[in-house]
Amino acid sequence: MVLLPAYNEAAQLSRVIAAVRAAAPGFPVVVVDDGSEDTTRDCALAAGATVLSLPFNAGYGVALQTGYKYALAQGFEYLVQLDSDGQHDPASIANVLARVRSGDMDVCIGSRFLEGETYAIPGLRRIGMFVFRRVASKLVGRTITDPTSGFQAMNRRVIAFFCRDSYPVDYPDTDVLVMLHRHGFRIGEVPVDMYPNKSAKSMHTGLRPLYYLFKMALNIPLNLIRKEG
Amino acid sequence: MALRQKILAAVVGVGLLIVIIELVRRRRLKEEYSWLWLMAGVVMLVIGLNYGLLQRITEFIGAGWTSSTLFFFGILFVVALCLQFSVKISGLENKVKNLAQQLALLEAQRSDRLSREEEPTPPSEE
Known about the structure:
The structure holds two protein chains of two kinds. By secondary structure, chain A is α/β, with parallel strands linked by helices. Chain A has helices at residues 10-23, 40-46, 60-74, 93-101, 125-140, 156-162, 174-182, 208-225; strands at 2-6, 29-33, 50-53, 78-81, 107-111, 152-155, 187-191. Chain A has a single domain (2-225), classed as Spore Coat Polysaccharide Biosynthesis Protein SpsA, Chain A (Alpha-Beta Complex), CATH 3.90.550.10. Helix content of chain A is 41%, strand content 14%. In chain A, strand 2, helix 2 and strand 3 (50-53) form a beta-alpha-beta unit. Chain A starts with a strand and ends with a helix. Helix content of chain B is 84%, strand content 0%. By secondary structure, chain B is mostly helical. Chain B has helices at 3-25, 31-49, 51-61, 66-118. Classes of the chains: A alpha/beta, B mainly alpha. Chain A binds chain B through residues 32, 50-56, 58, 62, 65-66, 69-70, 73, 165, 169, and chain B through 94, 97-98, 100-101, 103-105, 107-108, 112.
């Protein structure tokens, strides 16, 4: 199935769902409406998607995990997730999924940087991305060029792993990759095209990048010493 | 210690104990949280009536003034309480998250079933 977490994305959603349907015909499209105040839910329903509506805005990670839980309950073998703001090109779904389907990887990340930069990153974020890229690559034991990408494919074992309470629902990111690696999942990347965010609504605004840095700095080392079944 | 101080300390200590017990009796405060508060009330009462004990503790921990001892343990108590709340809130947040997700899944299941029931109803004659 294709998972689209959405918060106030009514403007883009119909177009994105249509593109997903065109790129991956026959795949159920599941939109998690993260307590949107606009018509996200109606747009998704009108476009023929299954909609999981959270009763309040609970955050990106909670929305994703809701989708994972749905996939697990419905018995889907594979899941592809992408952002619903139109940043990710649904045409790449087949590429990202292929490596997971063939059994080469448990998780496949759609990277913006693997084949040169198709996407210009604004200012300071470039530095942060560079740091996390290095950290992730070091800890996962192979080059990860885009650890913060929301474009991912995974198999059922990973879905089940993500449904646990240990899944870090506030900003699941680099630390998730470290967690996955520690639990023996195979992680890899394929290149994808990326459009700069048109609505310029990023999760990383205001003081949040600072909190994000703090969380990663705390969580990545903790994941290395944490013992979990 | 002056008698007035003793009386004040005793009154505050006893008052706190009464309020806590009353809250637990009315089930406004869970027993789980009451023990910390009860302890605080008892300690207040004992210290208030027994200045010698406070002096001995002050000497033992090496504080300069008895008032420092009171502030030190008072703040320590508040910090412990806040920490307990933070732990509780983290647990509750996780539960709320799980409930919200469950609700979203159940709701999707229900509307799915409703739409499936609506669609293929063969024309029945009744």
